[in-house]
Amino acid sequence: MRTSGTTSGVQSVLQPVFQYNSSVTPREIIAKAWAITKKERGIRAWGYVGSFFETMLHLKVLLYQMYFFWSFFVIGNTVGLFEIEEILYAYLPVGVFVTIIIIFLVMLTIELFLPSLCLGAIIGLSAKSYRKEEVKGGMILGLYNFFPLFVLKEALVLSSVSMAITFSSVILRYGENRGLIIFLLCALWFLWLFSMMLKFCMSFAEECVVIRKTSTFEAMGKSFKLVISHLGKIVFLIVLLFVISLRILINTLMALLLPALIVGFAFLFSLFLSATLTAILTGIIALILIGLASYLFAYLEVFKQTAWTITFLELNALKDLDIIEA
Fold it and tell me: Is the pLDDT of residue 230 over 50?
């Protein structure tokens, strides 16, 4: 009787763990993430806003670099940092130029900060939806978690391909010694690769900040521990990384297509319109194109982030591997 009681007691303790480990598979996580993405319009709205301003920021960077590349390699002229602004000042009326600069600075500020706020809302609301809670409070979630999420994002800023291209452009344009240029470019892209590896280890840091209310550095440590502890479940992470890779591929294609379309429309309008009308019409078309692209990015961003959030909730519920006794 004692043995039977002991055995049943052990089984009662271990049964929830075994049930939990086998309850959710990677395929089910992906399915649940997609179901939440399609169901929750509020989460998609936050994803759309964040994707729109993030796409605009990357588009500005790529347009600048396209002009610098054309000037440096085609014309052979090393342009200054504010040469585009000088060209606009020379060809546009003063009032129009001042308006454009003010709008540019305001939009740049929004593009730098708003995506982090939207990210906090997406993570928090998707976690609530997965837990079958009422999906509301996106603004509070975004504001409350904004600063640590912004710090995490900027700490891995070099993992962005657009930023790596920008720094490479600066090195090529202002470097004088060929050997030094090659060394700096190699060092830069080595740091980019290191940042990508670090970003992989920090995959759950943002979720840890929003869901567990931990500090930035504590979230980094918790994320690293989760990734290392469950690295053996490589299939589980490969599925999620495939989603990220798909988004990066689409982003890359759209990022290359959008600047080409905008430059093409600007050149076409300049043939028969004044500089002011060309700038206005090109800006309107650019906003329409960015809006359409952001609609696609919103689905992918919410889907990817929801999948990571569900993954964090599932793995975080397991006992840490370094803990012997609860």
Answer: yes
| Contact by Cβ (8 Å): 93, 101 | no
- How do residues 138-173 score in pLDDT, each as one tens digit? 899 999 999 999 988 888 877 777 778 778 877 877
pLDDT above 90: percentage of residues in the chain: 13
| The two structure tokens encoding residue 129 | 């939806």
In 3D space, the residue among 61, 115, 96, 9 whose CA is nearest the CA of residue 279 turns out to be 96
* Two tokens, residue 310: 């569900």
Question: Rg for the chain (alpha carbons), in Å?
Answer: 24
CA distance to 48, 114, 130, 294, 301, per residue, from 297 (Å): 7, 16, 22, 5, 6
Q: Give CA torsion, residues 185, 186, 189, 191, to 10 deg.
A: -110
- CB atoms under 10 Å from CB of 53, counted, come to 21
Q: How much is the pTM? A: 0.76
Give me the pLDDT at residue 15, please.
35
**Token reading at 33:** 């993430």
| Residue 145: partners with Cβ closer than 8 Å, 6 or more residues away | 120, 123, 124, 209, 210
21, 33, 40, 20: which is closest to 240 by C-alpha?
33
Contact 29, 314 (CB under 8 A): yes
CA distances from 89 to 69, 99, 100, 251 (A): 21, 11, 10, 32
